[in-house]
Write a structure and sequence with these properties.
608 residues, mainly alpha, Sodium/glucose cotransporter, 2 domains, 76% helix, 0% strand, globular
Length: 608
């Protein structure tokens, strides 16, 4: 794609503004690592939530979304749409708890919740597992997407794309930590939405509007029969595919329900509990609905503008190139610079978050916890900046070994599926201990890497050729969610057995956690030993909020989908239901605030 001087001017202005905003908070972030990693716990809900959504808008997301539409149909995006249910679970069950914990990382939570040497070992292992292994895979697929994008649009070799893009994100992330990340994320979310909406609008105008586009796709002889299905239709799927989708629904809130990683980091950084809850609520809508449909429209339009039957060999071999090829095909000179800036924004908003989040593990949970415990704050800030550089190099090496974004997505789902239930229950059941998490993480890691272990057994003669063929087939694409569910159920059984056959944590640690976090749930003996602790836990209210939140997010998601595929009546019905869900859910959230404020006023009156 040829860029004009005007296009390059747009890219240059965007880069300069990003760097200025990023460096603006350098002095404040350098005060201590609480300012550096959680912005002094002072973020408003709209800034924290937008930052999470901007991270969700990575360079991989539009490429993978358009590819899923081309190969599986619109419903293929349930590969990540299901997470909306987990996010709503986070809003009503966990956001306040994370804020009350007042920690820097979710790995630090381990020693807040558990006691003894197992907790110490688990904290260090979790920091390495999430900060390096999991984080490197995520940043690797984001870099891979940027490499594909720059190859199609700019003709850059992979090494040049990585040097330029990673160097830009590194510069301001090192300087100002989370402050620089969240402020630039606001700009990057705005730029990303503007670019993707512009491309989607051009496609719809070119194809005659939503109804015309949908009619043309239905008439295509080589498009998947389920291309425009918003939810799986048993008539268009094999029994295996339909069962796989039902397994996916089973997984929907267990994997992402408590929130972790960079999501939890933003909740730690919110001004107060209510702000953390609202930030999660806003992020759920922005990430799942606002960001989704422009990418899906590009995927649908690509079936007409870049037909499967006559696709270039590169696109036939790699459907993830469809989105950047649509930019080349559709965007006129003058707007192409906007799309380059959009992808830079998507890339940097994810990279800066993961670099800052990953470094927080390495410094707070490894270096300060195990290596140098009593250094100055300036020393730890310097260590944080060096850790960010190390993580960027590891991620670049990981990206060099990848070839598919989708396969990396699936690997992360499987790698974390086994710990889903133990992460949910550790807040609400006093009996969960550190050994439960250790066993769940170990089991998930072993099962997610089945082909590796099978290959070792095959080479030493224990596993036959036919056995190796069966393993390879099972770890193929059609069994993705069945495999993830087996990992979830198998590891859950393992950790339950381990929990019931190991000693509970020390009573003093459990009491301290209960007093600080006030989680509610199954804390019978601990709650009885802390009669002075008042727990704000209304399960019926929480489940009602969860249901209304689902109505809001999925109503708006499907409503927009029906409108964009030429079905206005069900679309408007779904939108109306979504608006009602949002109104009622926010009323519940406001009611929680009123109850808390009334309790505070009552205590002040009693003291007076």
């Amino acid at each position: 794609m040829q860029l004009t001087s005007g296009d390059w001017a747009v890219v240059a202005v965007y880069g300069v503004v990003t760097l200025v905003l990023g460096f603006w908070f350098t002095r404040r972030a350098g005060q201590n690592i609480e300012e550096y990693f959680v912005a002094g716990r002072s973020l408003p809900w709209w800034l924290a939530g937008t930052s999470i959504a901007a991270t969700f808008f990575a360079t991989d997301a539009p490429l993978a979304t358009a590819a899923l539409v081309r190969t599986r149909g619109v419903f293929g995006n349930w590969l990540w749409w299901y997470e909306a249910a987990g996010f709503m679970f986070l809003v009503f069950f966990y956001a306040k708890l994370w804020r009350r914990a007042e920690i820097l990382t979710d790995a630090e939570f381990v020693e807040l919740r558990y006691s003894g040497r197992p907790a110490t070992v688990l904290r260090g292992f979790s920091a390495i597992f999430n900060g390096i292994l999991r984080n490197a895979v995520v940043m690797g697929w984001v870099m891979l997407a940027m490499v594909k994008f720059t190859r199609v649009l700019l003709g850059w070799p992979p090494w040049l794309a990585l040097v330029v893009c990673v160097g830009l994100a590194l510069t301001y992330t090192i300087a100002s930590g989370l402050w620089g990340v969240v402020v630039t994320d606001l700009l990057q979310f705005t730029a990303g939405m503007l670019g993707s909406l512009t491309l989607a609008g051009i496609i719809l105008v070119r194809l005659g509007g939503p109804a015309s586009m949908a009619a043309q796709v239905r008439a295509l002889p080589d498009a998947p029969v389920a291309t425009l299905d918003l939810v799986p239709d048993p008539a268009h799927l094999s029994s295996l595919e339909f069962v796989s989708f039902l397994f996916l629904i089973f997984l929907l809130w267990t994997r992402s329900g408590q929130g972790d990683g960079y999501v939890a980091q933003r909740l730690f950084a919110a001004k107060n509990e209510r702000q953390s809850l609202l930030s999660a609520f806003w992020f759920s809508f922005a990430a799942i609905v606002l960001l989704t449909w422009p990418w899906v429209i590009a995927g649908i339009g690509s079936l007409l503008i870049l037909p499967v039957a006559t696709a270039a060999p590169e696109l036939a071999a790699d459907p993830e190139l469809a989105y950047p090829m649509m930019i080349v095909e559709m965007m006129p000179a003058g707007l192409r610079g906007l799309m380059v800036a959009t992808f830079l924004a998507a890339f940097m908003s994810t990279m800066d978050t993961h670099l800052c989040w990953g470094a927080s593990y390495l410094v707070n949970d490894v270096y300060r916890r195990f290596i140098k415990r009593y250094a100055s704050e300036s020393h730890y800030v310097l260590a944080s900046r060096l850790a960010i550089v190390v993580l960027a190099l590891v991620a670049a090496a990981t990206a060099w070994q990848m070839d598919s974004i989708r396969r990396a997505w699936i690997y992360i789902i499987e790698l974390t599926a086994g710990v889903a239930l133990v992460w949910l229950l550790r807040w609400y059941w006093w009996r969960v201990n550190a050994w439960a998490e250790v066993s769940a993480m170990a089991g998930s890691f072993m099962l997610a890497n089945g082909p590796v272990w099978a290959g070792i057994l095959h080479r030493i003669g224990i596993l036959s050729d036919s056995g190796m063929a069966h393993v390879t087939h099972f770890y193929g694409g059609e069994f993705d969610f069945i495999r993830a569910t087996i990992i979830l159920l198998g590891c859950s059984l393992i950790w339950l057995v381990v929990t019931l056959n190991t000693r509970p944590d020390e009573t003093s640690r459990l009491q301290a956690f209960y007093r600080k976090v006030r989680p509610g749930g199954w804390w019978g003996p601990i709650a009885a030993s802390c009669p002075d602790v008042t727990v704000e836990h209304d399960a019926k209210r929480q489940w009602l909020g969860f249901g209304l939140g689902l109505l809001f997010v999925y109503g708006s998601l499907l409503g927009a989908g029906y409108l964009f595929t030429g079905r206005p009546v069900p679309g408007m019905v779904a939108i109306v239901l979504s608006i009602f869900g949002a109104w009622a859910a926010l009323r519940l959230i406001a009611g929680d605030r009123d109850v808390a404020e009334a309790r505070t006023d009552f205590k002040e009156e009693q003291l007076t």
